[in-house]
Structures are given as structure tokens and as C-alpha cells.
Amino acid sequence: MSTPKKIVVVGNGMVGHHFVEQLHNLNSEAKAVEITVLSGESRLAYDRVHLSEYFAGKTADDLAMTSEMVYQQWGINFFLDAKVTHINRELQTVTTAAGVVYNYDKLVLATGSYPFVPPIPGKDQEHSLVYRTIDDLDAISASAKVSKVGVVIGGGLLGLEAANALKQLGLETHVVEFAPQLMAVQIDAGGGKLLKDKIEQLGVQVHTSKATQEIKAGKECRYQLCFSDGEVLETDLILFSAGIRPYDNLAKEFGLEVGERGGIVVNDLCQTSGENIYAIGECALWNNFIFGLVAPGYTMARVVANHIIAGDESSERFTGADMSTKLKLMGVDVGSIGDAHGRTSGCLTYTYENQPLGVYKKMVVSHDESKLLGAVLIGDTSDYDSLLQYMLNGIELPKSPESLILPSAGEKPSLGADALPETATICSCLNVTKGDIIAAIDTGSTTVSAVKSCTKAASGCGGCASLLKNVVDSELAARGVVINTDICEHFAYSRQALFDIIKVQEIKSFTELLAQYGKGKGCEICKPAVGSILASVWNEYVLNPQHVALQDTNDTYLANMQKDGTYSVVPRVPGGEITADKLIAIGQVAKQFGLYTKITGGQRIDLFGARVDQLPLIWQQLIDAGLETGHAYGKSLRTVKSCVGSTWCRYGQQDSVTMAIDLENRYKGLRAPHKIKFAVSGCTRECAEAQSKDIGVIATEKGWNLYVCGNGGMKPRHADLFATDLDSTTLVKYIDRILMFYVKTADRLQRTSVWMENMEGGLDYLKKVVIADELAIADELEEQMARVVDTYQCEWKTTLENPESLKRFRQFVNSDKQDINIQFVEERGQIRPARAEEKLETV
Asked: What is the DSSP letter of 476?
């Protein structure tokens, strides 16, 4: 056997690790190479794309992309804190700062980039930090503890990520940007203006067109930024995020060709000017361009791995990469595709802006309007996937291209999976095409999870998961394969089928259903799904012995579990209306039990920090005061938000408060596939934000307009206008039918918005079912809702009257002691969970 080639990889970031993974997969049978990884950091590769989640509770282990055990299993030689300081190109060796020498046959430089810190006088001071590594994040956390105000210098993608980190740490946050707009590389001026407005609405102050000339001692804060226009900004913490620079110092020092502005020059095989030396990722300069996204780096890694194993026989070359991106910055959806700035000669643009909703969309098309060249999406990126495929694959645009981004253009031209060519890239992170997915299906992968395992699609950022499922389902359907809609391995039925079985066969328990229609013992998927269906159909007490084992933690304890193991208490406040006596009762409970109080966006008061053993004591006092459960723990109606309407407001057209209270009291016991939120606005000024709710009602001079299937959350959706100028009786009748049709036909954990989008015929079909009664089930739906209304019970009141149910509300089964791990600290006059470093040691 020939001696394996020695491959030395300098750097173990995301791209460096991906190269190791690719090379290992190619080498697993050939045994042609011996891989050595030299990492300059104290840990192996971790996910920098989701680095900001470190401040939201994720640990370094959560972000890790590999482990020492995995590398050992793969036979990888790896060394941490092994910064390379010398390359001997003649002897083909590298030397680390510790003086250790490693021989190589092929050297791969995956050194990445470093944060650019502008040469501002005063920049090198304590609490002047950068945002790049986990160690940087630890330093930021430490500084934030002794700071009140933080400033990020740089308003690009990374700068906004850094600003989000400071805001999560509780600092007053500012962003300072030299350019006249945010994210100037990715989006145009119109999108930049709207993005600035949206971020400022979130409490971050944005300062554009600001050049920092000096950093000096502050008067009220630790430092003072002095701008060229004479203005100053006081801050305690400075976070530099003004772009990145390629880490090319080794190349410069040891004679490899670099670009005028930095970057190790590479060819289509990612080979440098040095024999047997490659460069990949953000340190590599290809065609005078550095790619700052992870997907192009992954492609480079694959090209080099193939070339090392196959030599010049490898046909794969690096030919550039699409720099389109979709992300969420501080909760704001942002999408940038292709020529977002419209720099192509002769191009035309379509622009749509809705300032009240905070939505901006622009399409850049060719001079003949046949091809999409680029796009900008702010506030709503729901069209991103379709637009990206139009651009990447040169697909002919529809006759009216503007219909692709206009919300009022009727049914948008659909771009289904069948319309995509096999060359279409489905997963840009791992460069998985539709053809790759078809090949995986050809070799026996007949489920989405199997295709994902085979191709690695959707295992990067995960943004292509929905498109991947569409492609797989479409291809399987074209082959005559029946798409499996079984809820799980224990029931060969969909959720809708189980709903019909339970209702028609009058099945009252999971045990009975499993015995007649299932197998095995059930699982975490089918148990809560069946529990929800049973509650929707029969509306029995969820903590009855035959139901309690089906509930998740929140339903089991009739409260939402928080991150520290305590629970929240949420009394119902119908329509946001509450008497002074009830307010006092809530305040007295919060004071007696030392709870954190927060007014929510749904016009209720949440009480946080209750131990499980305190819940019955708290609820007894609240119920005695006339309050009842708010069902914040259940997949059920949460709130009906309202404005003050015609009773108080001079613009109000109808009594929105009374309508909101009536609706909340009617539907408060309804269990559903997912949570449901309502709102009622007294006029079109929309103070209650009804058009972002599952059910939205807006008053008119003649009655009520009904909106359906909107939601906020991770993927916001504007509700659709369903019917206009309804009288109150008809309004309630339509809502009854819509909700029960949703409960009957939606999939498990499916929001109303996704339910309608997946329904064949969409809004028009829903109107036919509800208004025209096309299926002749309107009476049945109304009767089912009447049953739910008539059998309503406050689950906490029932629990307090049931000694057996109360037994579960103990911190420990065999002890009355309290959990000493639950500890609080005081902040702004209230409690909050103690962080790990704040907790007192316990014996």
C-alpha cells in the first residue's frame, strides 16, 4: 500500500471543518490521506452563523459542529491552541507558536477572517471589543455587567447582529454607521430606510452618516465618541463591527500571492501561487472577490477535497457563488437577491412599500421584463424562495411580474417544485440541487428525513426545509408513491382522520383509540395530538386520569414552565378590560408570592416566578377574586385584544370592547391544533392590530369586517379579508364555522395561516365552505362549537376542587422541601432568574 498523503489544515472554523468532513467522507474507503487539523482557538469548530444565540441561552456545546470524540473516531489528528506562525514551502512544513513542526504533502489554509477595527484614536481601551468568537462573546458579557450603554460601530449584517447581542444583555444600544444607510452592501436605499425605522422601533438608536474621529473619556459614561460633524455620543461599551479582513498574514509573510486589498489569490481549484497549498473560505480571493458567506466556503472546501483525492481528474471547479441571503435581524426579516441595487444596464424595477405594516419589496428585472435580476425584501420575506429560484435558474417571469410581490394582486403565480430544473439549487449552504435530491430518491430515500440524511440538505441554516419537503413530495407523487401522512408509527392515520374517528366512533380516551385503531404504546407525537383532539371534540377536564398522561408539561401543570423551572400565572382579562378590584387582587398575589409582573402584548398581566407548589395557592386567591385561567399554557384561544372603540374614542365606529369580551368569553374553552389569537379594532386605524391575528375584526359604519389566518411570530403573515360589513350574529356564525373547520382539518401544531396556505383553493375555498356551505357541514360545525361553549370550565377552578389533581402540585414527590436551585436576583425593583454565575452555592 502507498503511504497516505499528509494533509495539514490550518484553521478549524465552519469552512475548515466542512473541508475535513468532506475529505474524511472521500477518504473513508480509499485511505489515501492522513489529516492533521491545527486550530488557533481553544475549541473545535462551532456555528458562527447562529453565534448570537449564545446570548439567548445556547452554550458552546450547543453551537459545536463536531467534537473531539468525533475527530478521534474519524482518525483526525487535531491540536487546539495551535496557531501556525511559519511555513517552509521548500521543506513543506508548518510550525506553530509552540515550536512544533508538521510535515505536509498538501496544505489547506482555512484561516478565515478577523474583525476590522478602524484606526480611530482611542480605540485600544478596555471595554472596546469585537464580535467574532465565543471568547469575544464572553468578554462582551463581562463588560455588559458593568455597563449601561453600548455602541456598535458598523451597521452591516454583523453590526446588527452585534447590536442585537447588546440589547439582549440589557444595554441601551446604539448603532453608528459611516454610510448613509444600514446594510449598504445587501440592500438598496429604500430598504435601508425602512430597516432603520423598524430597528429604531425595537429600541435601538441608529446613527447613519457618522464618522468617528476620536474616542475619549466620557462625562456621563465611560467613553465619548466624537464625530466629524461635531456631535458626540456617550457610551460605556464599544463594539467594533465595521467589516472583516481576510486572515492572510501567513500568505504575505511566506511569499504567496495576495490581492491589493488582501486575500490569498486562488484559481478555480482554490490553489494558491504556492505549490501544494490551497486556500478556502474568507481568506481566499477568487477572481478578485472575497466571499463572506459560509455557502461559498463550503463549495470551495468540496472542490479542494475532490481535487486532493482525485487529482486533476476531478471535474469540479469553483466558479463563484450567489451571494443572496435571507435572515432575521433583531426580529426583522431581510432578504437580498442578486442585483439588489439595480446596477445591470437597462434593468427595470418594481417597488412595493407598505409603511404602516413595515414592508418593503423591490424586484429588479431585465429590460424586456423576462428575467429576474435581483430583489430586496424587508419585513416580509415570504416571497424569497420563489424569487430566488426565478433568478438562479433564469426562469421566465409571468406576464405581470409585479404580481410576485404585490399582496393585492389576487392569486400569485405559483412556482411549484415541478417547474424547477434539476440544476436548481435547493440548499445553498451545502450546494444541494434538485438533481441531487432526485438521485437520493432513486437510491431508496423515500422520506424527507431520509433525503436530508443522504444529501445533508437543510442541515445548514435550515432555511430551505420547506422547499426541500415540496421537492421530495412532488417527486414521490410523480412516481405514484403515496405520500405518508400518518401522524406517527403508532397510528396509520392523519390528524384529520383521527379527528373523524374520535368523533364518529365517540371515542373518549387515548387507551380506547389505541386499542381499536393503533398499535404499541404511543409516543410524544401522538399522545398530545390525540389529547388535543379529545379536548376539542368532548371538552372534558384535561387532568382527568385518562387524559393527564397525554398532556405536555405546560398543560400538566396548567401553567407555562420558564427557563429556571418556575412557572408563569396568567389570569384571563377578556378584551383587556379589568376592574380595579381585580387589578388589586393581582397586585396583592404578586406582592405576597414575590412574583415578577409583566403587561403583555395581548393586554393581560403575566406573573412569573411561581414554584409548582405555589400554583394552587396563587390560583385560589385569583379565583376567589373573580378571575379565571387564561389558557396561556394550552393550544387554545389565548387573547382577544381590543381598542376602546366607540365607547371612548372619537374615531370608533362600533363598540369593539364589548365585541372583544363577547368573543373571548365564547371561545375561551376551545382547544385547537395550535394557539389562537383574536383582535377587535373599533375603526380602520387598527389600534388593536387585528390584521395580524388568526381572527381579526375591524368595525365599519355598517358592521364588522372579518379577517382570517394572520399571525405574528417567526414568520409573520398578514390576515386576509374574509367578509365585509357583517352584523354581529353573522360575524359570530362565520367565526364558529371557521374555527371548527380549522380544528377538524388542520395538521398537528399547524397555525391557521399555514393551514389555509396549504389548503387547496386557499381563501376562496374557505369562503365556499363557510359562507356558501359547499360541503353542507355548516350546521355540524356550529353544533360542535355550541358543545364547546356549553361545556366550558375554568380548569384551575376544577383543579382546586379536586384533591387528587392537587397532589401533582408538589416540587418533589416524596418531600415538601423547595428546590434550592431556583434562585432569583432583584432587577429594576422586581425578581428575575439568577444567572449561573449569580447563584449561591448550595450544599
From this structure: H
CB 630 within 8 A of CB 573: yes
CA dist 13 to 44, 112, 460, 574, Å?
Answer: 8, 7, 14, 52
Q: What is the pLDDT of residue 818?
A: 64
Selection from 653, 663, 507 nearest residue 572 by Cα:
663
Please say if the pLDDT value at position 415 is more than 70.
no
What is the predicted pLDDT for the residue at 251? 95
| pLDDT tens string 475-518 | 887 887 777 777 888 898 989 899 999 999 999 999 999 999 99
Question: How many angstroms separate the Cα of 153 from the Cα of each of 118, 177, 519?
Answer: 9, 6, 60
Written as nine digits, the cell of 152 is: 456598535
Which ranges in 75-207 belong to alpha helices (H)? 134-144, 157-168, 189-201
pLDDT band at 812 (very low <50, low <70, confident <90, very high): low
Asked if residue 680 has pLDDT above 90, the reply is yes
| 638 contact partners, CB below 8 Å, separation of at least 6 | 602, 630, 631, 632, 675, 676, 677
Q: How many CA atoms lie within 13 A of 686 on its CB side?
A: 13
Percent of the chain with pLDDT over 70: 95
Average per-residue pLDDT for the chain: 89
Neighbours of 164 (CB within 10 A): 23
What's the rounded Cα separation, in Å, for the pair 54 and 162? 12
Tell me the pLDDT tens digit for each residue of 603-643: 999 999 998 889 999 999 999 999 999 999 899 999 999 99
| Orientation angle between helical segments 728-745 and 762-770, nearest 10 degrees | 120
Question: What b-and-e string marks burial along 366-386, b requiring 16 or more CB atoms within 10 Å of the CB?
Answer: beebebbbbbbbbbbbbbbbb
- What cell does 408 get? 393585492
Nearest CA-CA partner of 194 in 178, 183, 210: 183
Look up residue 750 and give its three cell numbers: 399547524
Residues 6 or more apart whose Cβ sits within 8 Å of residue 17: 44, 45, 65, 66
**SS3 state at 768:** helix
Q: What are the grid coordinates assigned to 344, written together? A: 445591470
Is 567 in contact with 617 (CB distance < 8 Å)?
no
Using an 8 Å Cβ cutoff, are 198 and 378 in contact?
Answer: yes
Query: What angle in degrees, to the nearest 10, is found between the helix axes of 465-478 and 448-455?
Result: 110
Q: Which one, of 559, 574, 570, lies nearest residue 660 by Cα?
A: 574
Please give the helix or strand (H or E) that residue 502 lies within, else none.
helix 495-504
Contacts 24+ apart (CB under 8 A), 646-651: 646/682, 646/699, 649/682, 649/683, 651/682, 651/683, 651/685
Residue 51, C-alpha cell as written in the block: 453565534
User: Mapped to the 3 state alphabet, what secondary structure does 125-145 carry?
Assistant: CCCEEECCCHHHHHHHHHHHC
CA distance 190 to 197: 11
Phi, psi of 110 (to 5 degrees): -125, 55
Q: How far apart are CA 634 and CA 641, in angstroms?
A: 18
Distances (CA, A) of 802 to 625, 805, 811: 19, 5, 18
Q: Is the pTM of this model over 0.70?
A: no
Q: How far apart are CA 134 and CA 670, in angstroms?
A: 45
Pairing outcome for strands 432-433 and 425-427? antiparallel
The 3-state DSSP class for residue 199 equals helix
Cα–chain center distance at 502: 35
**Would you list the DSSP string of 360-410?**
EEEEEE-TTS-SEEEEEEES--TTHHHHHHHHHTTPPPPSSGGGGT-TTSS
Three cell numbers, residue 201:
422601533
Of 187, 180, 197, 199, whose CA–CA distance to 355 is shortest? 197
pLDDT number for residue 758: 79
The helix-helix angle for 294-310 and 14-30 (nearest 10°) equals: 30
Do 549 and 600 form a contact (C-beta atoms < 8 A)?
no
C-beta atoms surrounding 449 within 10 Å: 10
